[in-house]
Each structure stands twice: as C-alpha cells, then as structure tokens.
Automatic annotation (TrEMBL):
<dbReference type="Pfam" id="PF00903">
    <property type="entry name" value="Glyoxalase"/>
</dbReference>
<feature type="domain" description="VOC">
    <location>
        <begin position="5"/>
        <end position="131"/>
    </location>
</feature>
<dbReference type="InterPro" id="IPR052537">
    <property type="entry name" value="Extradiol_RC_dioxygenase"/>
</dbReference>
<feature type="domain" description="VOC">
    <location>
        <begin position="156"/>
        <end position="282"/>
    </location>
</feature>
<protein>
    <submittedName>
        <fullName>VOC family protein</fullName>
    </submittedName>
</protein>
<dbReference type="InterPro" id="IPR004360">
    <property type="entry name" value="Glyas_Fos-R_dOase_dom"/>
</dbReference>
<dbReference type="InterPro" id="IPR037523">
    <property type="entry name" value="VOC_core"/>
</dbReference>
<dbReference type="InterPro" id="IPR029068">
    <property type="entry name" value="Glyas_Bleomycin-R_OHBP_Dase"/>
</dbReference>
C-alpha cells in the first residue's frame, strides 16, 4: 500500500472568468471539467489539466466571488509546482510571462532542478519546475495550444510545499501515516539554520513530492483568493482507498470517511497544523459523464446534482471559452 504521488491541488479564485483566461489562454492548460463544488453547488469548480485530464496533472479552483485577499502565513499549502519537460521550456515561459505581464522571479536551481516562481493575477503562488532530470513519475501530455509548443507545455503537478508552525506534527503524519520517505533537504531561504525537507512516495520524482517547511516567524495564513484549499494524493483505486481509510482509523487519524466525488473517490484528513489533505483514486476519470473530445465545454454535474441543474445553472454566470 503506497501512495503514487500528487493527485490534484484545489485553490480559491474570486473570478472564475479571469481564472479561466489565465490557465487556458496563458498557461495553455485544458479545462477538462466545468462543474460545481459538490458541497456548495452555487459556486464553480474548475479543473485544469493535461490533454487527457490524467491524475497528477489537475489544478482546480473553487470560485468564491467575495473572497478576500490571502494573508500569506504558516499552516498553509504555500507553493504549487507545475512541471515542464525541459530546462529549455523555462526560457520559453520566461519570455511568455514577460509578454503577458505575469509577475515572475528569475530562473533558479532548487533541489537540483531549474525552476521559476510566479503568481497569477490573484497572487496564487506557483512555480514551474523542469523535468529534465526527472527519473520518477511520468508527466502527462500537454494540451494543443496555438501559442505554446507541445514540447514546452505543462505536463502535470510538481512538488507541493506545506508551510507549518509545528513541523514535527506534520512530519509524523507524512512519514508515519502516509508513508512518504525523506528524499532531500535544503536550507530555508528565511532561516538558513533550519532545514526544509523534501518527502517522496511511489516512483518518486517531481510528481511525487511534498516539501515540508517549518516557520515560526509568521501568523497563520488567512485563506482567500489566491490561496490553496487542499492537496490530494493518489491512491490507485477504490480498494486501496478503503485500505487507507482502515489505516487512518486504526492510527486514530481524524478523517471524513469514504466520499464519492463521481470522477474519483476520496477521503479527507485534517493535518494537526490545520492543513486539509485528501487521498483520491485515479479513476473513474473525467470522461465518466462526457466524451473525451468535449470535456469541459459544458457544465457537468454528478448524478446526485442533476435534478437541480436548472436551479444551479440559473445561479452561475456563464464563462465561455476554455477550450
């Protein structure tokens, strides 16, 4: 029983239309599912991914129109990485970000890989990471985009950084419960005496890493537009997910129990520092209710919400675009 890597990251936007423009038109990702938050169906839930919507490539957003600005801080999922195939791709993106006025930093090597940190218009903290030296989990297939050559396209999610006030508590969850293993360390950019730990699972590599950073100099992050709600990790199938739920129960880790999200099955854990971590199955997938060729073009609703379609559509503002 071993988690396969990062499944998806779910963040918050206050502007679904602007969010759709950034991630499809500028970042070149595919909108593979236009749906709603299943727990609050008056808000959009948008899924961006590679061409096929493969697990491990999904960056998703809940739209909360009146969300305030994020106050960055500790006990947060503080950085989301997106993978590209090569170092050369980073130079393409550097010029593209400049063209579109995207806030970015210089290309920097981190843990032996070239990277660029950048933000979207709402301050979402992101980083491109090169897969040129990756020997772990394979990336996906970039969506065809007229301005982004396929060899430079986004191929999936990379390492996800957790910034917490009490590193020992989250370390126990990552190592002892979720069975990730330490793979590397590097000095904190804020306090060079403190080590940041890179954890790995499954085949390892850029698609299977969590990074744990302890910070005692910050207040707790206030979630808002531009922040991350949760990170999900990959369980192979429903049988394995059931085994994980049994393990969580046996180890007295508070959890949600089994939840059917239709496109995948899930269980949610609340980390001792307050982070939300989901375990999610690789399937059934986003083509469960619409053809592969037209995924993301229409509002998709899971079966239990279908009877409320008219009411739900009435409350949502049309988005247009996306593919």
């Amino acid at each position: 029983m071993e988690l396969k890597g990062i499944h998806h990251v779910s963040a918050i936007t206050a502007n679904a239309a602007g969010n759709l423009h950034f991630y499809t038109d500028i970042m070149g990702m595919r909108l593979v599912k236009k749906t709603v938050n299943q727990d609050a169906p008056s808000m959009y839930h948008l899924f961006y991914a590679d061409e096929a919507g493969n697990p491990g490539t999904e960056l998703t957003f809940f739209e909360i129109p009146h969300a305030g600005a994020t106050r960055p801080g500790t006990n947060s999922i503080s950085l989301t990485s997106l993978r590209v195939a090569s170092d050369e791709a980073l130079y393409f993106w550097k010029e593209r970000f400049k063209k579109y006025g995207v806030d970015q930093e210089e290309i920097t090597e981190r843990v032996g890989r070239k990277t660029i940190r950048f933000t979207d218009a709402e301050g979402q903290r992101l980083m491109l990471v090169s897969d040129e030296k990756n020997a772990g989990v394979e990336g996906g297939t970039p969506r065809f985009h007229k301005e982004v050559p396929k060899e430079f396209g986004i191929i999936g999610l990379g390492p996800v950084t957790l910034t917490v006030a009490n590193g020992e508590l989250t370390r126990k969850l990552i190592e002892e419960v979720l069975k990730f293993s330490p793979a590397a360390t590097y000095p904190s950019e804020v306090d060079g005496q403190r080590e940041v730990v890179v954890y790995s699972t499954g085949e390892g590599g850029t698609g299977a890493e969590l990074i744990l950073e302890e910070r005692t100099d910050l207040a707790t992050e206030r979630l808002g537009r531009g922040s991350v709600h949760h990170v999900a990790l990959r369980a192979a199938d429903q049988k394995e997910l059931s085994n994980w739920i049994e393990r969580l129960t046996e180890m007295k880790v508070p959890h949600s129990g089994f939840i059917d999200r239709f496109y995948f099955r899930s269980v949610y854990i609340k980390d001792p520092n307050g982070l939300t971590i989901e375990l999610a199955t690789d399937g059934p997938g986003f083509d469960a209710d619409e053809p592969f060729e037209t995924m993301g073009e229409s509002l998709a609703l899971p079966p239990f919400l279908e009877p409320r379609r008219e009411e739900i559509e009435r409350r949502l503002k049309p988005l247009g675009g996306g593919n």
